[in-house]
Amino acid sequence: MRDLCLPLGLEADDMQKLESIVHTRGPIRAGEHLFREGDSFQALYAVKTGALKTYTIDSQGREHVLGFHIAGELAGLDGIYSSRNRCNAVALQTTSVCALPFSRLEQLTREVPGLQSQILRVMSRELSASAQLATEHSAEERLAGFLLSLSRRYARRGLDPCMLTLPMPRRDIASHLRLATETISRLFARFQDEGLVAARRREVRILDMDALRRIGAALDLDDDSDPRHNPSLR
Amino acid sequence: MRDLCLPLGLEADDMQKLESIVHTRGPIRAGEHLFREGDSFQALYAVKTGALKTYTIDSQGREHVLGFHIAGELAGLDGIYSSRNRCNAVALQTTSVCALPFSRLEQLTREVPGLQSQILRVMSRELSASAQLATEHSAEERLAGFLLSLSRRYARRGLDPCMLTLPMPRRDIASHLRLATETISRLFARFQDEGLVAARRREVRILDMDALRRIGAALDLDDDSDPRHNPSLR
DNA sequence: CCCCGGAATTGACCTGGATCAATTTTGCGC
DNA sequence: GCGCAAAATTGATCCAGGTCAATTCCGGGG
């Protein structure tokens, strides 16, 4: 629990309070759903181990992958406004989560101000990420950006940022990035030829992080290299 | 103030409190900036009259329009997590806004629980909208979805949902929808031929809302027609 | 009223990535 | 270990939407 993203910066006793309202949902096996679009929205879910994919099915039956959630990340935030889940969440591997009942969480934020800011910060970041993803970029930029994002999230978990084990198949990456699986495959091949990565199935080693950054910079939320930002203010 | 989206559902005295922390920023003329990417994030901005566009400039100097904000809508939410604005906000027409200093707003949410839920709801909705926009759809679907979204937002303001006066040029719509301006132009022409809309420059009349819905349904946040949702739960 | 410059439209052509079509590869149940 | 279905790769072809290039259409200033 202590390393879920939400409690960052909370005091020990506040974390205690948070822990008192969550309840762990035992292992969900790959392919099982945590919640579904249209379900009554009751809780946010923090991934403890494993990985989730969220997706929608549009009116023509096409699947759209909205995102992936690895350990330490939160899913379900988009259900708040309508009291109804806006997407489906399915486990990509055996996954365990903490359910954070939303009404109790909201209550708790009144007692624990740090929790409230943290939730707002998480949502704000998610919003930024989603807006970035909605912008126009070449297939190459999008895949590079995706790998960089995963790398950073792995690093935050204490894992080697250059050794990625993708929890999802190409098809899901493709849908998430609005590309065809064939395009993903060809891009991996090209990145490999150019010495940027070594990719074999779901094992991806990043060989040239800088080059990847140059390609995916336009999509990198955490990129601080932009000279228009004044570093002295940081 | 009373018809800004944020206070919806607040008691009179709570609204009083909210009003006490906001300060109005006199008319911003078309083309003037309200805030810029990289600026220290201090406040959220609620549009009173007029319209804003938010956008980023990527590492290659390309502009990406993130969204439009008409009267009653909030801008700046994506700046919360980094204490720095993540985008630029510019007036599309003469515009007046209320600045909601964020630290005081956060404080106030502790006293006014309804305000806290409302902020979460607004962010959650924004997140859903952005995620929808990030999905893959044809140019036709995206423009139809955009017009529907604008229509609904106009309706919420009490305006005729079929008589839209677009505050933005084609170029901005194009960038927002990841299309070329020429494509927007051709789509308007096609929609016109098919009797869906009558569009002349920035005046757009929606002639066949149902047909537009059939095209843009996949992107319509408020669409309740999906049979997979159980209406009895609503 | 006329002129100017940006916005919009329209047409011709091009291309990045999709689609279609085979093969491989490989994880997994038996 | 074998068989098989799903995942991934690779090649050939196609097309939605982009790009380039003229016009045309206005709105505003003098």
Outline the structure in words.
With 234 residues, the first copy, chain A, is α+β, with helices and mostly antiparallel strands. Helices cover 37% and strands 24% of the residues of chain A. Chain A is built from 7 helices and 11 strands. The first copy, chain A, has helices at 12-21, 102-111, 113-133, 139-156, 170-176, 181-193, 209-216, and strands spanning 23-28, 33-35, 43-49, 51-57, 63-70, 74-75, 88-91, 95-101, 163-165, 197-200, 203-206. The first copy, chain A, has a 4-stranded antiparallel β-sheet with strand order 1-8-3-6. In chain A, strand 4 and strand 5 form a beta hairpin. The radius of gyration of chain A is 18 Å and the shape is globular. The two termini of chain A are 30 Å apart. The model of chain A is unreliable at 227-234 (pLDDT under 50). Chain A binds a DNA duplex (30 and 30 nucleotides) through helix 6.
Summary keywords:
alpha+beta; 234 residues; 4-stranded antiparallel β-sheet; homodimer; globular; DNA-binding
**Main β sheet profile of chain A:** 4 strands, antiparallel
Order of helices and strands of chain A: HEEEEEEEEHHHEHHEEH
The parts of chain A where pLDDT drops under 50 for at least 5 residues are 227-234
Most extensive interface, residues per chain?
A: A-B, 55 and 56 residues
The oligomeric state is homodimer
Strand content of chain A: 15-25%
Total strand segments of chain A: 11
Give the termini separation of chain A.
30 Å
Q: Roughly what is the average pLDDT of chain A, rounded to an integer?
A: 89
Can you count the helices of chain A?
Answer: 7
Radius of gyration of chain A: 18 Å
What class, by secondary structure content of chain A? alpha+beta
Give the overall form of chain A: globular
Biggest sheet: strand arrangement of chain A: 1-8-3-6
Helix content of chain A: 25-40%
